[in-house]
């Protein structure tokens, strides 16, 4: 493995960490409706748990309401039950074939709690990126120890990996700030 391979692997893994962090952020509820909130809900479909998105069409009716259109007639009651039993605190309303899921307004206290959750998720993402930096630097040190690279190469590589790490940490900070703004907006 060369230094270029190590840097490329580290950057790829850091990108994956950012993508995972973005996925975690979409699951955090804001005042607005977002179909991604329902991604974790499993519905009983003929005896086996299936993600909600595989038994119904999810859409936004307006800024505070998610619409769920089941693909089969008998699934409506099961979908409602699954949403009620989830820990999201949502109360679906059935209107014929369409299930409406209104987003209740959040209290100021709940908004502050969610900003703490967002900061914690951001810190976890930063830790993951820093761990990848450490792994990359240790891999380069092994190359130097095995005489496959020079110490100058090691210094250059560490500087490049640090620049990449700084770039990703800045991106995490921007994502955290944007999500906090979204949560605190009334």
From TrEMBL:
Residues 21-184 form the Ribosome recycling factor domain. GO terms for biological process: cytoplasmic translational termination. It is found in: Cytoplasm. Its main location: cytoplasm. GO terms for molecular function: ribosomal large subunit binding. It comes from the Bacteria. NCBIfam families: frr. Responsible for the release of ribosomes from messenger RNA at the termination of protein biosynthesis. May increase the efficiency of translation by recycling ribosomes from one round of translation to another. This is Ribosome-recycling factor. It comes from Paracidovorax wautersii. The gene is frr.
